[in-house]
């Protein structure tokens, strides 16, 4: 009787391999520069035996075994560089410094700077410029990842860049295309999950949850934001989540969750640092909108004129958001004059900052009660759509 045919050994998927190189264990091994440990880890991740690794590197099994046991070393720069190239590692990991390695470090530093500057641009009301800077960076990093280069610092940079791109797109895209923004923030989560960094994971979940809310995927948005709050390792990080969780809870119509989150945020406002997301001005707008969404417009009307003044921590787009919310509450109080004034100011700023989603909010808020304002907002929105389609 013939022996049964042996199936070939299965290999880990490419994605499985990539994430293993992002783990804390991999970081420890790579930082050690120990060639033997690196070779053993490479074999484990890729499911290779010593013979197969030797075929890849051009050595026999005996030599690979000797390298792993530190009985032999690679003393010449050429061999070390070739091994680094075959293993798809930066040469400096194996102690080689050359122009290619310098380019790698410069690429990471440039990418980190690009992400920081793009976020500053977005917070300053220039989200379109942020998108223009982040698109090519993300494409370059994803091409590097597809080519098998999965250095920890590059993966972390890619996750930050994907979040930044998604959030910036969430500012400049109209509502019917906001799922694209959520798509990009979602792509950061798979990387963040492998870094064992609660602050970064909370950040990625927070920004993704907010983009889900804007795309009207409210239940999932609340789930992600609750997870972000649970992961937050300190008061400052949790304070960054609360405004977005409150807003999502309000839009979901969950009055109990909305009230509890707002109560916690109010309790932290004096002790946690103020940011563009967490400050009295932003919380006032969120409170007004949430009260209306949970059927308490009468309370919102009483509070509408008691908001704090804006400060330097308030991003320009938040001013637009707040003006539209205030206009909505004023219309509920039959104050058409006050609503018109707020919407006209918001419209001017939304056009300057190229915020189509906010123009759509103006169209809905004005409705049939303020037809002139609605018509102007529709025209402004059409112009932006035409420019985006050109």
UniProtKB/TrEMBL annotation:
Gene3D superfamilies membership: lambda repressor-like DNA-binding domains (1.10.260.40)
A GO term, aspect molecular function: DNA binding
Annotated InterPro entries: Cro/C1-type_HTH, Lambda_DNA-bd_dom_sf
Residues covered by the HTH cro/C1-type domain: 39-94
Superkingdom of this protein's organism: Bacteria
Protein name as it appears in the record: HTH cro/C1-type domain-containing protein
Species the sequence originates in: Streptomyces caniferus
